[in-house]
Amino acid sequence: MRWFVACVLMLAALPARAADKVVFGLDWKAEAEYGGYYQALATGIYAKQGLEVTIQEGGPQINHMQLLMAGRLDFNLGGGRAIEFAAEKLPFLAVAAFFQRDLAVLMAHPGNGNDTFESLRGKPISIGSDTRNGWWRFLAAKFGYSDSQIRPYTYNLAPFLSDKNAVQQGYVSNEPFLIREKIGFDPTILALPDAGYLGYANIVTTSQKLVDTKPDLVRRFIDASILGWYSYLYGDPAPANALIRNANPEMPDALIEFGRKTMLARGTVDSGDARRLGIGAMTDARWKAFYDSMVAVGVYKPGIDLSKAYTTQFVNHRVGMP
Asked: How far is CA 119 from CA 34, 190, 293, 299, in A?
């Protein structure tokens, strides 16, 4: 008995295991579209997994992909380039897809005939540089757009609001709310998934080295992020919203709630394969269908080894599902 008590006292005297530090880069400023990650941070879900997570905001002047490749980030929301990584034989890959449906849209003023993707052929469209190298290539190939249509996207609504013929990119969970607040009308929305775009979004990427050397850390980060998203969507979002407002004071409460409700209404996070496999789900079939659709319109070359673009090792385990 004395031996047992002595062992218990010795164990109690041992220092607690230090949390693993993780730096996670977003692809934009703090907003509802990252609510699950902020919820996991605010409610201690990451901490319970033995993680000390720092979330770094993105923005138009921040290239987090370069920071990931330089080893300054452990995880990054940059999975839209996963197939390009595989094509270029770069040791980075996607490990979870938190958006089953992309929130990206093209927006136009109502009543001007710009109400279909086909109707935009030849017309000026304002998009950002990342979009130009991403889903724009899909739309251009499918609907006959040309790069001569591209106009600079200034990351504000003033040019769009002042020109009734303007067309620009946006997020269905953000700009429509701001437009109604400023002018009082709902813009025409052309959603990327409705054009047949099959790509995931809000995709977490990391290095092959981290997957190989610290798979348990990757698993804990993804599991905690999944739990954070379930909590944010179906529980009390207040803890995450407080962190979002603190990180991005220009983000009003009403817009945060609009973003959250839009994601729920559109099944952005919890739809499709996520309904049976859990939030963050990825499947070989979906990746192949997306790749084949992009090959068909000339975006990607055939013959890329998709197994190098992503891994389902850390998802599809129904974590957090009721």
From this structure: 33, 11, 22, 22
Instruction: Classify residue 4 as exposed, middle or buried by CB count within 10 Å of its CB (0-12, 13-18, 19+).
Output: exposed
Q: Put the strands of the sheet holding 92-99 in their side by side order.
A: 51-56, 20-25, 75-77, 201-207, 92-99
Q: Residues 6 or more apart from 177 whose CB is under 8 A from it?
A: 254, 255, 258, 259
Q: Which numeric CATH code is attached to 19-101+199-308?
A: 3.40.190.10
CB 97 within 8 A of CB 282: yes
Tokens of 142: 């499918």
- Rounded to 5 degrees, φ, ψ at 125 are -135, 125
Structure confidence by residue, pLDDT tens digits, 236-275: 999 999 999 999 999 999 999 999 999 999 999 999 999 9
**Quick one: which H or E segment has residue 31?**
none
The CATH 3.40.190.10 portion of the chain extends over: 19-101+199-308, 104-195
The secondary structure element, H or E, covering residue 158 is helix 158-162
Q: Are 220 and 51 in contact (CB under 8 A)?
A: yes
Q: What CA–CA distance (Å, rounded) separates 187 from 168?
A: 11
Q: Indicate the pairing of strand 167-171 with strand 104-108.
A: antiparallel
Q: What is the full DSSP assignment across 55-120?
A: EE---TT--HHHHHHTTS-SEEE-GGGHHHHHHTT-SEEEEEEEESS--EEEEE-TTSS--SSGGG
Highest CATH level, class, for 104-195 = alpha beta
| Contacts of residue 287, Cβ cutoff 8 Å, sequence gap at least 6 | 306, 309, 310
- pLDDT tens, 168-181? 999 999 999 999 99
Grouping H, G, I as helix, E, B as strand and the rest as coil, residue 129 is helix
Distance (Å, whole) CA 316 – CA 206: 18
For 70-128, write each residue's pLDDT tens digit.
899 999 997 778 999 999 999 999 999 999 999 999 999 999 999 999 999 999 999 98
